[in-house]
Structures are given as C-alpha cells and as structure tokens.
Amino acid sequence: MKKNFLTPNMITGFLSVLIGIFVIIKIPSEIEKPVLIFGQSSSEIDPELVPLIVAIMLIIFGSYTMIKDRNSLISNSWPNLTRSMLKNVGFTVLCLAVYSLLFNSLGFVLASVLLIFILSQYMGDVSHYISISLAILFPLIVFGVFVNIMHVFLPAFPLYEVRIGNYLIM
Amino acid sequence: MLDSFLNSFPILFGSGNFFTILFAVALGLLIGLFVGALPGLTTLMAMAIVLPISFFMDPLVGIPFLIGVYKGGIFGGSIPAILVSLPGTGASVATTFDGPPLTKQGKGRKALETALFSSVIADFSSDIVTILLIGPIALVALLIGPPELAAILFLSILIISSTSNGSVGKNMIMLAVGLLIALIGQDPIAALTRFTFDVFELRAGIPLLPMLIGLFAIPEILINIESKAKQFVQAKLNLKKEEQLTWKEFLGLRKTIFRSTIIGTTIGMIPGVGQVVAAFVGYAAAKNASPNPEKFGKGELEGIAAPEAANNAVNGPTLVPLLTLGIPGDNVTAILLGAFVAHGLRPGPQLMTEQGSIVFAILLCMLLANVLFLILGYFTMPLFSKVVSIKKSYLLPLTIVFAFAGSFVFRHNPADLYFLLFFGIFGYILRKLEFDVTPLVMAFILAPSLEYAFGQTLSLGDDGLLKYLLLERPIAALIICATPIITWKLWKRSKRLRDVATEVTSNQVK
C-alpha cells in the first residue's frame, strides 16, 4: 500500500511539535518573574515548570503522532468539503464576524435583526413575511427577557433607548 | 452525610422555590426534547447555549433546569431516530436499527413509547444508584490531600484522553492543547501573568463560557449550514392514529431494560466512554440474550428498549466523580461543572461536607425530573414528532443569536464574542479533521486545580519529593504507580466496547 506523507496526523503532529518549541522559546519572556520578599520567592514553585512540562508534552505527543500514527486508518482522512460547502461556511463565518463587531456598536436587537434576516435569506426557501417577522420578533423577545426579566445587560441601540413604560425594548 | 441527605428534603420541598424548580425542570425538558428532536443539533449544543441563562437563576433552579435539558435531549434524539432513521443525537444511533422498521409497520407510536418508558425507568434507577454511591465516595474523597488530588486529576485526564474517540496520539495532543490554553492568563499559585503577549483581554485567561459554546454549538451550526438544505428532514407524520404500547408488551421488555440499566450505569462510571457506547453495548447484549436475534434490525421492540435504557442509565453515574472529586467524566458534565462553579458550588471533596444538602436536593431534583419527563414526554410526543420537519433556514440563525447573547451576558465583555467566534471556527476545523474535543475541554477545566495541587505537593515535598510520597503519602504514590496500568486497562476496555459498537453497526448495514 502506498504510504501518504501529508496526512492530517502528520501535519497535526508537526504543528504540535512546532507549538511546543514555540512555548519553550517564549517561556523566558512571557512568564512574569516572581517577586522576592526578604530574599524568598513569592511563588512556591518555579513558575516556568508547568509551562515547560506542557511544552514537552506537546513535543512528545506530536512526535508520536508524526511517527506512529502518520498512516493510521483511524480518524486520519481529509474532510470531504466541496466548493459550495466552503462557500456556505465562509459566508456564515463572515456574517458572524461582522455580527460580533456590530453587536456593541449597533446594539443587540438591530445587529441580530440584520443577521437573522440575511442568513435566513441566504439559506433560502423561506417565506419573506415569516423571515422578516422572525428577524424582528426573536431579538426583541430575547432582549426583553434578558434585560427586563433576568436583569442582565445586553447592548441597547446606541443612539436612543426605545422604551414602553419602564421596559427597555431595544 | 445522612444529615445532609435528610436536610435536602426541606430545602427542596419546604422552600418557596419548589414550583419554580418544577417549572424550570419542565422548561428544560421541553427545550431538550425540542433540540434533541432536530437531527443535527445535539443535547450538548442546547446545554452550552442555555448554560448562561442558568447562571442567573438560584442554584436549585438553574442546575435542575440544565439537567432537564440533558434528560429531555437524550430522549428527544430518539424521536427522529425512530421516525425517520436520523439520530437526533449520537446516543440514539443504535435506536435507528429497529425504530424505522417499526414506523414503517405503523408502530411508530409504540416504538416511541417503548423508548420513553425504557429511558425513564433506566434513568430513575441509575439516579438512585448515584444518590446511594455519592455519600460513601464523598467520605473517602475527604481523606485525600493535595498529593492524592494531583495524582487523581492527572489520572483522570489521562483516562479521558485515552478513552475518547479516535486516535490516541491526537487525543493526547488535544489534552496538551487544553493544558496550554489554560496556561494563558495567571498561574493559580502566585497569580503571575503568563502567555498574554501584552493583550489586555488575555490577562484574565480564556473565559470558559465562550469556549464551551464556541466548541460545542458553533461547529454544529456550521456543519448544518454546509449543505444549505432547507429542512432537517422532509417528513409528514401523524402519530395520533397509531396503536400504543400494551401492558403485556411492556412487561416483556422488563429483563432487557434491567440488563441495559446495569450496562449503562457501569459505563457511566468510566470517564470518557459515554452514552453512545452504552447504547451499542446494550443493543448487542439484548440481541445476544434474545431467543430471536434474527428479528433485531427488522422492527423489534427490544431493539428500542435496550439502547434507550442503556444510554439514559449513563446520566446519573457520570455525576459521581464530578461532585465528589470535581472531575467531569464527559462534555455534558463539563458544562454542568461550569454551572456549579458559577453558582459558587465548587465540585470536589469539600463540596459534600460544606453544601451536601444542596447537592442532595439537586440529586432529588433529578428523580423529580424523571417523573416530569415521563408525563411531558408522553403527552408531547406527537407534537415533537413534527419538530423534525422544521425549516433549518429559520432555526439556525435564531440559534446563532442566542449563542452570542449567552456568551456576552456573563461578563459583558465584547472580547468574549471574539473568543466565541475563534473557538467556533477552531471547533469546526477540529470536527472536520475528526478530533475529539473532550480531552481539550477536560484538560482546560481541570488544569487550574491540577496545577494548584501539584504546586502544593512540590512545596510539601520540598525536602525530597520521592521520600515524601513514599513515606508520608503512600496512597498518592500508589495512584501514580498505578496510573499507566489503569489507563492501559481502561483504554483496552473502551476499545473493546467501541469494537462491539462497530460490529453491531456493520452487522446492521449488512
């Protein structure tokens, strides 16, 4: 049987070893030094010890996977992703990234209305009326329950607060 | 311990909260049933998304609410498995062997009732075993100090990694990655900053909640969006007209339910193995014990009762190591651990002595949840059988909004949304490359306790660690010496159980 070189396990193992080496290189600069109190360290153990152990684990397990599991038949196949699948996932991730940015600047309700409407339209086979109604009603309900009933903070519309009586609506 | 148990009754029934608890459990069960009934969305995802809501409830309301989601979800998963041969959750894959043939014979309702009754009986029995076991184990757990705790925690993450799905090498890498992520922020011994790369948002460490929702919920949503299919499944079902399970048929299943309950309860005590394996082993055992094994896979009620009883019997026992030692046995208990910690109940040896009554009250809620589960499940079965045909294009965007709101509300920190997105994409890549995230999550959760106990042990054994362990802490030394043997044995056992599952599946495919 022909042995493959660039299997998922091989790459995973290689990345693991690289991360382990990176951690070892970064240990001196990325770990705060303990304060000395009357000549005694404020930390009971060397703060570099545990990160060093973790880095060594990454190198050992990575090497094991590269050498031993390289051509294993267990969970070692590349995902079967078509161009359209990647497009759908890519578009959704892009929407989520924009949503994360708008969540605060536009407020929860407005940002969510846009996200629900755009994603449901993108996925298709929706009635426009149901899609619009859901896009408007669902964020309003979630906002109402979280803010007015559970008294939890969610970003409101930044320009002005919309209220009915004492209840913040968006 | 007995006092704590007895005190739990007035806490549960005497408080003004009782009806709120009932309502929360019922709501949790309905949410679980709904999500479980949707093929492609799992109980784990539902629990991760509603976890933040439980933080804002009383512990006696919030935790039973999550337990309701868990119980409802496991049974909910069997609805599409029986009706349209699509398992709603991994635990109900074995149910697809006999469920759809029964539905084709016009016995869908009968099959669903078998699944419900088997699930409730097995769950109830395993919860009683849990209540009986937890006291004595907690008393033993009280005797352990930092060296023993460090040794047990290390053993646990090794067991979880070796018994998880897929390649051992990849699972061990996931374990190390989980420990690495836990290093970011401050060390638990002297609060020294590490691996923050001068990013302010990393100073407090990686937040658990966005990580859990990101790893468990977002990948499932992305996988469902891949195909852009309009519905989870195309089906028109009407259960109201179908015949119901008779008393005689139910009595004929009692041996199968009993056997599967024992199998599920035993498997539940092994960390990392879980419901999927329990269901397959339960199915295989029922088939082997049956005088008519040839009927399995063609519409046999025992083929429904066996996996359903086994996967539900896992629920209770997984809580024993969580509550007594602070060790979550699987992803669901990892989420429950998050809920316990958020409510100020830190699972571990001290929990049962300090808050034993509340813990027992929560366990009693589990029994209560089973009764509610039976009633709600029975009456809402026809309704949830229609859930399978809900349009994806409506449901998935709403789920995303809920996941983001849930991640944000706990710390009100916009950075948590970026953490959520990062872990969502990371989780998706891991799923596509067939990584099991369980070792990563477990290592991340247990790392602070492990590091703290490890630091204390090194400090206590300052004059010579080996001498200290051998002379003063022989149990810790014994656990350390036994670690490779126990890990090897449990790895072999879980491999054997998985082989049974694979064999059952391949036999059914043939």
Enumerate how many helices of chain B there are, as a single number.
24
Q: How would you classify the helix and strand content of chain A by structural class?
A: mainly alpha
Structural classification of chain B: mainly alpha
* Largest sheet geometry of chain A: 2 strands, antiparallel
Q: Characterize the largest beta sheet of chain B: strand count, sense, and whether it forms a barrel.
A: 2 strands, antiparallel
Number of strands of chain B: 2
Widest sheet: strand ordering of chain B: 1-2
Trace the largest sheet of chain A across and list its strands.
1-2
Inertia-based shape of chain B: globular
Classify the oligomer. heterodimer
Helix content of chain B: over 70%
- The overall strand count of chain A is 4
Beta-strand content of chain A: under 5%
Radius of gyration of chain B: 22 Å
Order of helices and strands of chain A: HEEHHHHEE
Over all CA atoms, what is the radius of gyration of chain A? 26 Å
Write a compact overview of the structure shown.
The complex is a heterodimer of chains A (170) and B (510). Chain A is mostly helical and 170 residues long.
Write the layout of secondary structure elements.
The complex is a heterodimer of chains A (170) and B (510).
Chain A: H1 8-30, E1 36-37, E2 40-41, H2 49-67, H3 83-105, H4 108-123, H5 128-149, E3 163-164, E4 167-168
Antiparallel strand pairs in A: 1-2, 3-4
Helix pairs in contact in A: 1-2, 3-4, 4-5
Chain B: H1 2-14, H2 18-37, H3 43-55, H4 59-76, H5 78-84, H6 99-104, H7 108-141, H8 146-163, H9 168-183, E1 185-186, E2 193-194, H10 208-216, H11 218-226, H12 247-251, H13 254-268, H14 274-289, H15 302-313, H16 319-325, H17 331-342, H18 351-354, H19 356-385, H20 392-409, H21 415-432, H22 438-460, H23 465-472, H24 474-509
Helix pairs in contact in B: 1-19, 2-4, 2-19, 3-4, 3-10, 3-17, 3-20, 4-17, 4-19, 5-7, 7-13, 7-15, 7-16, 7-19, 8-9, 8-22, 8-24, 9-22, 10-20, 10-21, 11-20, 11-21, 13-14, 13-15, 14-15, 14-24, 23-24
